[in-house]
Task: inverse folding
């Protein structure tokens, strides 16, 4: 069975939209999300466009700030500090990756934690790993919601995450662990990856290689979550990290690319932005 991220994202955005209406009645203005894009990377441009579109759809005020790849680190940090001080900005997102002359860690740390809608700030990351209240990073949050929606019982299951990035692999592994899965974090250098992957009841793949996971790596009936967004080298078309046609024959549930995790990441960003806004408004009372 295929799990549609597009459909679930629609449901989440409808709830956020209602939340925005209530918020406007109560506080007099909608949440304001500011997305910063540095440079002209086509994938980043497309992600940022999608975020702006969803923000408008749910009724947010949405601003996209675009800067050339030559912007200095100091200039970018200055812009972020000004946004931190602006009472009418609720969420700040800097699209990654950044050009190599800019220190990404410094940029992430500079975003006020209360406006960190990505959940990337070190204080947010620490809170996640210490099971304290936090803003959950959007893609891992979306993955857990997809599994719940598909009726996959995470409790007691064996989960394998292929990929160990700060954005997806590590936080999704922690969130699965907190739902009582037994979690293995694997990566491109894992010895005998095929054997490790094929023991998974839940397989999350975020390695960034087109069709990396083949049918022989997947257990019959497994839930397969494909986080990959790649260009097929042969056709130039969008494809995931999982060979969908092959693996769909074996998996119990599987997410497609496009239309799986991607729309969920954006829907969870909308949810996080509304949550940050509400928390900040409530703290002002
Ligand atoms: N680059 C790839 N994914 C993400 C994300 O979720 N947030 C940001 N800010 N940059 C990204």
Result:
């Amino acid at each position: 069975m295929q799990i549609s991220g597009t459909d679930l994202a629609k449901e989440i955005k409808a709830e956020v939209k209602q939340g925005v209406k209530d918020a406007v009645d109560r506080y007099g203005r909608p949440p304001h999300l500011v997305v910063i894009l540095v440079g002209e990377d086509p994938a980043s441009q497309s992600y940022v466009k999608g975020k702006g579109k969803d923000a408008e759809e749910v009724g947010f005020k949405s601003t996209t700030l675009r800067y050339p790849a030559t912007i200095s680190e100091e200039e970018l940090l200055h812009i972020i500090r000004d946004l931190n001080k602006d009472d009418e900005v609720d969420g700040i997102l800097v699209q990654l990756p950044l050009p190599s002359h800019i220190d990404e860690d410094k940029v992430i740390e500079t975003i006020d934690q209360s406006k960190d809608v990505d959940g990337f700030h070190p204080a947010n990351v620490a809170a996640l790993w210490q099971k304290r209240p936090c803003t959950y990073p959007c893609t891992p949050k979306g993955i857990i919601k997809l599994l719940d929606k598909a009726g996959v019982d995470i409790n007691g299951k064996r989960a394998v995450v292929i990929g160990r990035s700060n954005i997806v692999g590590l936080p999704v592994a922690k969130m699965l662990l907190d739902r009582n899965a037994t979690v293995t974090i694997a990566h491109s250098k894992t010895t005998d990856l095929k054997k490790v992957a094929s023991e998974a009841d839940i397989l999350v793949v975020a390695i960034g290689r087109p069709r990396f996971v083949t049918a022989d790596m997947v257990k019959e009936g497994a839930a397969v979550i494909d986080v990959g967004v790649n260009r097929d080298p042969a056709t130039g078309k969008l494809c995931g990290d999982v060979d969908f046609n092959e693996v769909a024959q074996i998996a119990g549930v599987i997410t497609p690319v496009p239309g799986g995790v991607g729309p969920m990441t954006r829907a969870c960003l909308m949810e996080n932005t509304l949550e940050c806004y509400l928390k900040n408004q409530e703290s002002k009372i």
The first strand starts at residue 32 and ends at 38. The beta strands are 32-38, 61-67, 91-94, 158-162, 182-186, 202-205, 223-226, 230-231, 238-239, 253-254. The mean pLDDT is 97.
